[in-house]
Amino acid sequence: MVKNSNKKFAMHPRNPLRTAPNYTKLAIKHKDFRHVCELELNGKVSLNFRNERTLRELTKMLLLEYFGLQVDFAPGSLVPTLALRLNYILWLEDLLAPQKLDAVRGIDIGCGSSCIYSLLGAKKNMWQMLALESKQTNIEYARQNVARNELQSLIEVYAQPDKQSIFSSYFESESAATKANFHFCLCNPPFFDSNAANPFGGNTRNPQRRPAPNNVRTGSAEELTCAGGEVQFVQRIVDESEMYKERVLIFSSMLGVKANVPKIMDYLRERKISNVCSTEFHQGHTTRWAVAWSHQPICLSD
Ligand SMILES: C[S@@+](CC[C@H](N)C(=O)[O-])C[C@H]1O[C@@H](n2cnc3c(N)ncnc32)[C@H](O)[C@@H]1O
Which residue's CA is minimally distant from atom 6 of ligand 1? Predict the structure, then answer.
């Protein structure tokens, strides 16, 4: 049986990582990546996805190889996987396509130290990005990543002064008052509930239906947790979206747990927000979900 033959469970059709990269060729080309590769007896290169350093060098190498992006991550911070971030960007491209926009402006809520979504949006699509981040080291690394790739004219990294705020600190600031509106926002929210007895202990998947993840978990508690976990974080985005209905055309967020999709859909319904849609992102063993909504009369289809 061909693995992943069902198109429904494949990566986005335009995702270049849908075709597995040739790691042997890439190891020959990229020295730092080569150092984390293991050589099998048959001469093929294999990767230990349970090793954080391997994941770092892999993501760095793929960003360079596929997008010409030079990226570094703050020590101990979240190492993003490229296939998933691309699937999200490509879905947003699809949602925005009917608008036939000449210039796209987006907000990246919690850009992390990598600033990966904003870098991809800017480099790949020339999107103008506002990257919001609350953690000081992440802000510094994100700004360095933007500067290293000479993308300052397309990406602004805004230091979020209040972790409870999503858009309000920025939109209420003087500099934002005169600035143009945005076409979308995206978010990979802090996933775990900091109020839980053991925030990282919960099993989020049914082991009988889905095998354990291949990748080691990366990221600091500050990046990965918040009160109420991803559901409360996305509910805050929904709440603040009602304050800024005109300022952002399409609001969206990723979700790490399938069961949280209906929770957010119910929350939107209770607020009489009916222009909504959802999708799934497939990356090998890992599936993620996303929801989008708009307060404006546009067609959201996925
Ligand atoms: C799960 S990480 C996602 C990082 C990156 N976007 C990615 O996908 O790899 C969430 C990020 O949101 C930041 N964050 C948490 N609350 C925030 C807030 N209210 N405003 C802006 N950033 C926030 C955290 O510091 C962290 O860097």
Answer: 111
| pLDDT tens digits, 51-89 | 999 999 999 999 999 999 999 999 999 999 999 999 999
Q: Where are the alpha helices (DSSP H) in 38-135?
A: 52-67, 82-96, 116-125
Burial, 94: exposed, middle or buried (Cβ in 10 Å; 0-12, 13-18, 19+)?
Answer: middle
Q: Is the separation of the CB atoms in 80 and 59 below 8 Å?
A: yes
ipTM score for this prediction: 0.99
Q: Does residue 53 lie in a domain region?
A: no
* CA-based R_g, the chain, Å: 19
Pocket perturbation via mutation, ligand 1, pick of 163, 164, 234 by most ligand atoms within 8 A of CB = 163
Residue 224 in any domain: the answer is: yes
For ligand 1, say whether the CB of 112 is within 6 Å of any of its atoms. yes
Q: For position 230, which CATH number holds?
A: 3.40.50.150
Number of domains in the chain: 1
Domain span holding position 103: 69-194+213-293
For residue 42, the model assigns a pLDDT of: 86
215 CA → ligand 1 middle, Å: 20
pLDDT band at 223 (very low <50, low <70, confident <90, very high): confident
Domain assignment present for residue 64? The answer is: no
Whether ligand 1 lies within 6 angstroms of the CB of 111 is answered as: yes
Residue 19 gets which letter from DSSP? S
Residue 121 lies in a domain: yes
Mean pLDDT highest for which of 31-45, 86-100, 213-227? 86-100
DSSP, collapsed to helix, strand or coil, labels residue 249 as strand
Q: Ligand 1 centre and the CA of 171: distance in Å?
A: 18
Per-residue pLDDT, averaged over 116-128, amounts to 98
Q: Is the pLDDT of residue 204 over 70?
A: no
**How far away, in angstroms, is 79 Cα from ligand 1 center?**
12
Q: Is 53 annotated as a binding residue?
A: no
